[in-house]
């Protein structure tokens, strides 16, 4: 057995081998030591008293899925090895084979894929001038691919990995040096140290990286492999013609699925090409700062997704998350969604009926995935039928639709009447979880099955008759006829009655308080009943497998129905949300002006009944850059975030929290909001801030929306102010990167940009002061704040009065030194490459003035008489421009 274990283990390196032995899965040697720790089970050993004990641990087969799920979530790979032949008296060692390898990206069991989000396996292929990426969700059959060429293609691939958030990434071994440092070995980001003691930063991705032989991604083989799988002569219909790197990645992903699952994955019926430029790009920082799918505390709660997800199905919730991660930039597509939402918003009764009907639909995509992979139980198939039973009612509710998208959904939806009837005619209404438990196939479906069931039923009567007769014959009132899997049927007699046992009883087993016997009649009955039981299981298994295979023939119809249900669920959820939260329809346009009247933060307003709405008007010409000043706790960050969230909501076809909203097509939303140390990566707050800012300045376009908060606050005041000023100028002046920008700052000197640049506007968060008390009004008004009220906020926080008094004194001194003799901020005296608006402002940075300063610096004052000093001063004064 150990030799068999080691041979199978050698065939599956890098996995934990779950080796089936009777009712347990056992692990041995190093696998046992590791798995016992990770699963929190007892580590024991075979041959404990020998010189070479074999470490081992095990889990019951019926509970294995939960333990495997725990290992998979930690990034491990598990090879499930089953007994593939029944043990018998002639069999010394039963045959065993690995039936599938479970990995983080290929998990399909319910314990591992709970929730309504995608579980993507990603594949990366290519190098040099082109790289491809593919994303496959085995649980649903969703399959996408893309390709990047030219400079920056590797970083573009990494950006897609951040956006799709795969559970596992596979790549050719030739990319190991490039990719390995970015991934954790078991899905856990930990800091490592090299052999020479050098500190190594933790990985960028906390998911598993699996390296495969390069031939898996060979361009010569991949095209043929995909065409064979999809049964097509060309990949042009999928948009993959000539995109060899994308084809390599896609084939690598699909081949990995088929190798690990030992299955053809027939529910993967197609692949979609996508261009990232077709979608609004939301990088990891923006997703985090705007709390789009996860809140800052982690988890879905208090994120935008949690607030707007009112879907009724897992498919709808999954689609909504995908829309949020990749918002559309297609105005026609978005207008079609908005038309549908508007119709359902108006028709309250039909909307409510739709949502009630959708509650009856389970996750068709995942049920179909389990059918395809051979893991669907009888209850899964009945759940599939019950879900399809709702499709005719959905078609009736869609029949009278006016919106084009709703009519399209109605036309695409097949009610699958024949499939529903086939399942209903085959399976019982409430089958057991496992087919071995019997009573899965409906009575009347198969004549032989009905006959065997009758025999089984009659045998129960026969056993009862034998028990009654033997009690009367022997005079033993406590005599029992029983059955177990080890000894079959037996007669059990207590020790006190053994003297009454007839001579024709054959002893079978001795217990502490009783003995078990059999008779020729009981043996004959046992043979007939057990043969019937085995035959019943065989027939039911065959009928059920045939039913699953026939369902697979309907895969395209079911997948289309699932997509229709998911889309309808999202649209109806948007309409319900608009009615409950007083959202309005946004107007999307190809211009450059963003106008929001009475905008609200969709998450914050759910936690307060007194949210203060605010307006914004920003474009690429007259109001390109807004400088936002105001007190701490005044609401600047909320204001910035709500504008970004409203823009994102408009780009998924959702109504928005505002009185009115006109939203241009936005290619990217960038954010730099708040302090965020990343000490585990060895990066301070300021380093994180500058890295995120650099990304914005290098990649923003005039169609982007940039939300900046507190640039330059992580370093010395003058350093920070200088950087903030230069960033503001760059985003206003640079034609390639001049985006619509809202810039919140406590540097009041920044407001001087409005005097110097034509597209800069100052706005502030209003404050009410009364006899030393301050009230934050959270209202955005024109103009610039006179101060930040930081000391007043410190007073509210409870700082001692002496500290506050001293702080006010220091503040006055600092403010005085920031002004020139004219009482104006010194930083505002110069703007590169643009003529200053006020000619009376002295310019100390002109070349002529710089020579004066150089001469002043070089003066040797110790050797300068008073008369000479006056002469020098007069000369320099005449040269100052």
Outline:
This protein is of the alpha/beta class and 881 residues long. The chain contains 28 helices and 29 strands.
Written account of the structure:
There is one protein chain. The chain is of the alpha/beta class. Helices cover 41% and strands 18% of the residues. It has a seven-stranded mixed sheet, sandwiched between helices. Strands 3-4-2-1-5-6 form a six-stranded mixed sheet, sandwiched between helices. Helix 17 packs antiparallel against helix 19 and helix 25 runs antiparallel to helix 26. The radius of gyration is 36 Å and the shape is elongated. The N and C termini lie far apart (95 Å). About 4% of the residues have low confidence.
Shape: elongated
State the distance separating the first and last CA atoms: 95 Å
Number of strands: 29
Q: What strand line-up does the widest sheet have? A: 11-14-10-7-8-9-15
Instruction: Classify the secondary structure makeup into a structural class.
Output: alpha/beta
Q: Mean pLDDT, as a whole number?
A: 86
Helix % is: 40-55%
Radius of gyration: 36 Å
> Which sheet architecture does the biggest sheet show?
7 strands, mixed
Tally of DSSP helical segments? 28
Low-pLDDT parts are: 186-201, 676-683, 833-845
What percentage of amino acids are in beta strands? 15-25%
